[in-house]
Amino acid sequence: MESCSYRGSITISDVIEYLYCPRFTYYMHCLSIPQREERYYKVRKGRELHAAKEKTNIGYLRKRYGVVEKRVEVYMNSPRLGVRGVVDEVLFLEDGTAAPLDYKFAEFREKLFRTHRYQSALYGLLISDVYDVPVNRGYIVYTRSKDKIIEVEFTDRDKKKAVEIVEKIYQIIQGEDYPEARVNKRKCLDCTYRRICTR
């Protein structure tokens, strides 16, 4: 897989914000207007969840998915991809591959959100770059659905699309282009930029 045509580094959180609405990228990186996300309930609960899960050893993962080693809260950076982030857990499996595991303070609604799919795929690409191991799948734990675990198979298309998303983010940052808003207007009501965003 080819690397992206730029230099620099963005975070996995930047990718999530872009997928929610590309204008997040513009306001945060081109205008340097920070997001005041600390006041939001789900963000606070998510951070508390991650702090609690750091101390948890989920033994059944070893039996169910063939985990031989687990590393928790792993910071990774890939200069090739131009992406960095912290993976909740990196799982090393019996078949010689590795996989990201990510906790979500959310319910599983019988359909995997594209945000979760591409976030997991990018975690997988980071793990592959940093540890030089194949990564073919990831796991997402939906804590509000009784810790339901969803396995995500990574296709070549998923990996290619994840890299393309990163490239689009850098195009906005480097070109300082004001992107189209791509979000349901009902979601705009909860947006931290709603007072300055022109729709």
N-to-C series of helices and strands: EHHHHEEEHEEHH
Low-confidence stretches: 1-6
Let me know the average pLDDT: 84
Q: Which quaternary structure do these chains form?
A: single chain
Structural summary, described in words:
- The structure is a single chain.
- The termini are far apart.
- Strands 1, 2, 3, 4, 5 and 6 form a 6-stranded mixed sheet that branches.
- Mean pLDDT is 84; it is low at 1-6.
- By secondary structure, the chain is an alpha/beta fold.
- It has one domain (10-188): Lambda Exonuclease, Chain A (Alpha-Beta Complex).
- It is built from 7 helices and 6 strands.
List keywords for this structure.
disordered N terminus; 7 helices; alpha/beta; 39% helix; 199 residues; single chain; 22% strand; Lambda Exonuclease, Chain A; 6-stranded mixed beta sheet
Map the helices and strands.
Layout: E1 10-11, H1 12-20, H2 23-30, H3 41-53, H4 60-65, E2 67-78, E3 83-93, E4 98-104, H5 114-131, E5 137-142, E6 148-153, H6 156-175, H7 185-188
Helix pairs in contact: 1-5, 2-6, 5-6
